[in-house]
């Protein structure tokens, strides 16, 4: 009984090695055997529990490693997505119930808005668009959020410098923080639109060129007939007042021919004259000489001062058509004179930049609006009414 008590005590301290010598009275021997069996089982369980503990620790360690691995993968994919979104040149947004929840850097840069402005609860995305586009934007955002599939909308917005930009607004429904929202992409189509318009212009110009060369040819014949007849008639000798009227007809027909010549010049294919080496300063001097009469009489007639200065560096010869270039500079000078009805000064410069020869012309006249600038090279575009041909 004593050793049983000691064994129980030892077990209470975790010692499972204690065994009782079996002997003595039968019941006592039975009890000792039972005690020993129990101790065997406890020792066995102890071993199992240690193994289990070890396995648990091992799993714990790999679990930590797995969690670290997953976290790294998650961070990596987050960085990839962030880089993609932040480096997209087209603004990306998430809008939920009229509030901008997310915006990319390109959005701020395109519209010149600060993060605080956009994060303000009163900020409305549509306020960045031209007035006539605002309802389109608001509507699309709502419909996209409801899951409606709709084609992109072309809208106008003003960039940070206040210039109008043509944007394609694309959107689709997404889940954002457990609620539906709209993901928006704004693609700047300004340049594409401009190129498209330019292409249309070129096609229009080609058609115009073909048409005008046909018309010019017919007009030339008609004016030739009028001029020929009037010159013959005038030789017959009429009274001065009738001859005066005839002179007006002759002058008008001559002016007409001059206009026809310019139309023909414009629509003529430019490959018929071979290029020759020529000096740009000489061409510029020639053009100033050719137009001297015109700007002198103009300034005297209007009683204003017109100053012309030519500053040409020594430049290498260039290849071109002297006649055509003289005409270019003559027209530029005449345009400048027309643009300075109150007088002013005109500067012509030519200089070398690397392998190029540059020419610059500058006047202190009325200048051009953006609209005029856009149509400057369109044939027949003029702001001078009947006195200009726009050629
Ligand atoms: N130096 C300038 N300053 C201001 N506007 C100009 C100048 N040069 C051209 N323009 C504008 O561009 C338009 C087109 O010029 P373009 O020379 O093609 O035709 P035009 O001068 O009107 O007619 P034309 O040359 O037959 O007299 C002009 O009507 C004018 O509005
Ligand atoms: Mg002109």
Fold blueprint:
Layout: H1 2-12, H2 26-87, E1 92-96, E2 99-103, H3 105-111, H4 115-119, H5 134-145, E3 153-158, E4 164-176, E5 179-188, H6 190-235, H7 240-267, E6 276-278, H8 280-302, E7 306-312, E8 318-320, H9 322-338, E9 344-353, E10 356-363, H10 370-375
Parallel strand pairs: 7-9
Antiparallel strand pairs: 1-2, 1-5, 3-4, 4-5, 6-8, 9-10
Helix pairs in contact: 6-7, 8-9
Bound molecules: adenosine-5'-triphosphate and magnesium ion.
Adenosine-5'-triphosphate is lined by residues 331, 335-336, 339, 363, 365-368, 372, 376, 381-384, 388-391.
Helix/strand class = alpha+beta
Question: Portion of residues in helices?
Answer: 55-70%
Hetero groups in this structure are: adenosine-5'-triphosphate, magnesium ion
As for the CATH topology of the largest domain, it is Heat Shock Protein 90
CATH superfamily of the largest domain: Histidine kinase-like ATPase, C-terminal domain
Average pLDDT level: 89
How many helical elements?
A: 10
The number of E-state strands comes to: 10
Terminal-residue CA separation = 130 Å
Oligomerization: single chain
Proper CATH architecture of the largest domain:
2-Layer Sandwich
Give a short account of the largest sheet: 5 strands, antiparallel
Molecular shape: rod-shaped
The share of residues in extended strands comes to: 15-25%
In the residues, how many domains can be counted?
Answer: 4
Broad CATH class of the largest domain: Alpha Beta
């Amino acid at each position: 009984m004593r050793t049983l008590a000691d064994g129980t005590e030892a077990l209470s301290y975790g010692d499972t090695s204690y065994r009782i010598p079996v002997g003595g009275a039968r019941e006592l021997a039975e009890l000792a055997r039972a005690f020993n069996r129990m101790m065997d089982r406890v020792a066995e369980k102890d071993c199992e529990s240690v193994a289990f503990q070890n396995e648990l620790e091992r799993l714990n360690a790999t679990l930590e490693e797995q969690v670290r691995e997953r976290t790294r993968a998650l961070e990596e994919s987050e960085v990839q997505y962030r880089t993609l979104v932040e480096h997209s040149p087209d603004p990306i947004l998430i809008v939920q119930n009229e509030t901008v929840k997310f915006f990319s850097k390109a959005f701020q840069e395109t519209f010149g808005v600060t993060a605080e402005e956009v994060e303000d609860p009163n900020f409305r995305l549509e306020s960045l668009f031209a007035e006539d586009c605002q309802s389109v934007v608001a509507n699309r955002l709502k419909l996209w959020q409801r899951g409606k599939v709709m084609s992109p909308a072309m809208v106008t917005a003003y960039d940070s410098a206040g210039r109008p930009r043509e944007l394609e607004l694309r959107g689709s429904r997404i889940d954002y923080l457990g609620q539906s929202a709209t993901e928006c992409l704004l693609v700047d189509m300004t340049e594409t639109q401009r190129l498209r318009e330019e292409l249309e212009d070129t096609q229009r110009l080609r058609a115009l060129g073909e048409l005008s060369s046909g018309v010019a040819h017919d007009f030339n014949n008609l004016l030739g007939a009028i001029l020929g007849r009037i010159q013959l008639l005038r030789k017959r000798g009429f009274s001065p007042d009738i001859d005066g009227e005839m002179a007006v007809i002759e002058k008008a027909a001559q002016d007409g021919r001059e206009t026809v010549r310019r139309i023909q010049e414009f629509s003529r294919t430019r490959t018929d004259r071979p290029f020759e080496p020529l000096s740009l300063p000489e061409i510029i001097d020639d053009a100033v000489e050719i137009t001297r009469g015109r700007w002198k009489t103009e300034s005297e007639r209007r009683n204003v001062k017109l100053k012309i200065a030519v500053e040409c560096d020594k430049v290498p010869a260039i290849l071109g058509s002297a006649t055509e270039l003289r005409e270019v500079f003559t027209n530029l000078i005449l345009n400048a004179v027309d643009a300075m009805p109150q007088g002013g000064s005109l500067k012509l410069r030519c200089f070398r930049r690397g392998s190029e020869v540059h020419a610059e012309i500058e006047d202190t006249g009325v200048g051009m609006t953006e609209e005029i600038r856009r149509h400057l090279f369109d044939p027949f575009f003029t702001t001078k009414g009947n006195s200009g041909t726009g050629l």
